[in-house]
Amino acid sequence: MKHDAVRPAQHAIPDDRFRRLLGAREWGALPAAVRRRFGKRLIDGASVVYQGQVVAMRMNLAGRLLAHITRIIGGPLPFDLSSIGQPAIVSVTEDCAGQGQFWIRQYGRATGFPQVVHSSKRFGGPTGIEEYVGAGIGMALRVSTEGGALIFKSDHYFLRLGALRIRLPRWLNPGALTIAHRDLGDGRFLFSLTLKSRLLGELIHQDAQFFDSEV
Asked: What span, in angstroms and rounded, lies between the C-alpha atoms of 96 and 44?
């Protein structure tokens, strides 16, 4: 069984999970490069790795505090403004047991060790897809398209304790999270993360540009 990063075409099979979430019409409206990235399932323990760099990062005071507080559960939010211009790496591996995908994001910093974010996307729950970030905390996502971009928006947050799934009340939500995957052509794409609060405005925004590993 291979565990190294490989070209997806060598260790992947067609996958329609994201197509089913979007529907045929929205899926067909996406650029071919986006459909290729999200229309495959890795096999044989293979991973696909995308390399790039952080190109924009901002946060207000509340966002900075929240990002540091959530480091208790593994640091799922970017927390260092010095990551602008630093290398970024995303690795995706199929979670064969959990019927989903493992995502590892690494963001360089001006000093110290890079920030590493672990999460697991699982195809299930009331919206059809959920993302777990650590300590049993997860969020249900809504998938859509906007202007040719693939969009993931948080629907609600929850805590899973064994078989028990507890939906968190609105007042405990950190904010509305939006993640966008926008193709830039020439094997490049932009990954954008935005966290907004109804009371405190935009808490965190990060843009990172990546390149297809097979280019």
From this structure: 10
Six-digit token pair at 87? 């290398």
Q: What domains appear along the chain, each with residue ranges and CATH number? A: 8-211 (2.40.128)
The phi and psi torsions of 51 (rounded to 5 degrees) equal -110, 150
Residue 214 sits at φ, ψ, to 5 deg, of -90, 0
Structure tokens at 103: 């995502």
Residue with tokens 């019927």: 99
Residue 22 CA neighbour count, 13 Å, CB half:
23
Write the DSSP symbol of residue 136. Answer: T
- Residues sharing a CB contact under 8 Å with residue 183, sequence separation 6 or more, in sequence order: 31, 33, 34, 148, 149, 189
In degrees to the nearest 10, what's the CA dihedral of 9, 11, 17, 20?
30
Q: What is the DSSP letter of 128?
A: S
The string of pLDDT tens digits covering residues 38-87 is 999 988 778 999 999 999 999 999 999 999 999 999 899 999 999 999 99
SS3 213: coil
- What is the model's pTM? 0.91
| Structural tokens at position 10 | 């060598």
Measured over the CA atoms of residue 117, residue 122, residue 124 and residue 128, the dihedral's sign is positive
